[in-house]
UniProtKB/TrEMBL annotation:
Region (Disordered): 1-37
Listed Pfam families: PP1_inhibitor
Keyword Oxidoreductase belongs to the record: no
Similarity comment text for this entry: Belongs to the PP1 inhibitor family.
Name this protein carries in UniProt: Protein phosphatase 1 regulatory subunit 14B
PANTHER family to which the protein is assigned, alphabetical: PROTEIN PHOSPHATASE 1 INHIBITOR POTENTIATED BY PROTEIN KINASE C, PROTEIN PHOSPHATASE 1 REGULATORY SUBUNIT 14B
Any GO BP annotation: innate immune response
Gene3D superfamilies according to UniProt: CPI-17
């Protein structure tokens, strides 16, 4: 059952609100609630792939920088930015720029990363079903 509540005296002064109640509840206005937020649904499979990729990146950076996760230098490998680029060469150069202060060889990490992002979709533009 839905109950309508209008806080103003005239229906034109304030928008009406709809409250849902279970059978047996009173028809009094429920306590104030925060308005709900609308979120965009992403493909769960794509989100899982992205999460696994981010975990892999962190593990690799720990090895490359020979440190704990908390001690990795401040850098952001933006997968969506890489996916926007035209070629793997551009992607590789961008990642190499980000890892400029890494003293270990980064070629294996870069090629592994480029291989893993092949076929991935950007998350900033969710796919409609």
């Amino acid at each position: 059952m839905a109950a309508l509540s209008s806080p103003g005296s005239s229906p034109h002064t304030a928008p009406q609100k709809v409250y849902f109640q279970a059978p047996g509840e009173s028809t009094e206005e429920p306590e104030r609630r925060h308005p709900g937020k609308v979120t965009v649904k992403y493909d769960r499979k794509e989100l899982r792939k992205r999460l696994r990729l981010e975990e892999w990146i962190l593990d690799q950076l720990v090895v490359l920088y020979d440190c704990q996760e908390e001690e990795i230098p401040e850098l952001e490998i933006d997968v969506d930015e890489l996916l926007d680029m035209e070629t793997d060469q551009q992607r590789g150069e961008r990642v190499k720029e980000l890892l400029v202060d890494c003293y270990k060889p980064t070629e294996a990490f870069i090629s592994g990363l480029l291989e893993k992002i092949q076929g991935m979709q950007k998350l900033s533009t969710p796919q409609k079903k």
